[in-house]
Amino acid sequence: MPGIEIPAIPRSWRFPAQLASVPRVRRAIFDALPKPCPPQLSYELRLLASELATNAIKYGASAGEDETIELVFWTADGYYWLAVSDPGEGWPRLRTSDGEASGGRGLVLVEALSEVWGVAPRAVRGKAVVAGVRRTGW
């Protein structure tokens, strides 16, 4: 119907819960972005997906088990949305990290890159961390 924008159908992927999957997560987002896409926006969305996936792998999956994480990417209501799900029971929380720590800044980065983010339980087990980045200026 003319004049009505049909929303994008979400894209989703499953990856092994291994740090080697993080570059594949970044590539999936790069490939899913509309072309052309401003380089800064592309970079920020890939960085955001990378941080969410790394946290899900490090803190949401059990070592030694054959587990996966799920990445979902879609546009709605003027935002690009990313959700990364893992089977873990623990919920992420924003922490302050001293300047000497080698980690612990993932959610600080997620908060800086996204307009909104939060955690939602999954129907079966685990949770999804969802972040939205406003689509403006192009």
UniProtKB/TrEMBL annotation:
GO terms for molecular function: ATP binding; protein serine/threonine kinase activity. Residues 15-115 form the Histidine kinase/HSP90-like ATPase domain. It holds the Pfam family HATPase_c_2. Keywords: ATP-binding, Kinase, Nucleotide-binding, Serine/threonine-protein kinase, Transferase. InterPro entries: Anti-sigma-factor_SerPK, HATPase_C_sf, HATPase_dom. It comes from the Bacteria. The keyword Nucleotide-binding applies. The keyword Nucleotide-binding applies. This is ATP-binding protein. It comes from Streptomyces tateyamensis.
